[in-house]
Amino acid sequence: MYENFAELYAIIKATEKLEKAYVRDIISSSEYETECQKLIAHFKTLASTLKDTVPSIERFADTYKMDCPAAINRLVTSGVPATVEHRAAAATSATTSAAIVAECVQNFITAMDSLKLNMVAVDQVYPLLSDLSASLNRLGILPPDFEGKIKMKEWISRLARMGAADELTEQQARQLHFDLESSYNSFMAALPNAGT
């Protein structure tokens, strides 16, 4: 039993040192991940063996005054290396951003196409520009002073002062289409290139 306790103690202490080394950038991410996975595997095997003797790892650490919060978090709470956690969070963030970018592109194209189809009544144009503005504002990679955001805000403000049945003049429709086109080009230029 004491031999198993010594093993458990050593795994927790080694994991704490490994976590600190990773945070201080003393070891590379790949070395950290490999070693951390080994320690987690050893820990899970040993913990299942000791589950009747040591029902709580936290209590074990307190009893032996280990003071290893990073190791307890990694071994008990998380169960995966920090690099794996961060990759999953980054992938979720990238997926969310990609979905918002796709929504912005869709809204740009829909608004431009509606003008080409001569849908120029305020109650037809306003919702499209409102959706576009909302999707642009949700995309965190665009600065607050982004050209498209400013132009859409101006157009929404202008349309809000008009009646629902009012229609854009031919000149206004051409100007709006031009503003949408230039904002779309700026938007595409502002997107980070793939792989960066």
UniProtKB/TrEMBL annotation:
Gene3D superfamilies (alphabetical): 1.20.120.1130, 1.20.1440.200
SUPFAM superfamilies from the UniProt entry: Endosomal sorting complex assembly domain (SSF140111), VPS28 C-terminal domain-like (SSF140427)
Keyword vocabulary terms for this entry: Endosome, Protein transport, Transport
Keyword Protein transport: yes
Main location: other
Protein name, as recorded: Vacuolar protein sorting-associated protein 28 homolog
Superkingdom, taxonomy of origin: Eukaryota
Keyword Protein transport assigned: yes
VPS28 N-terminal domain residues: 1-86
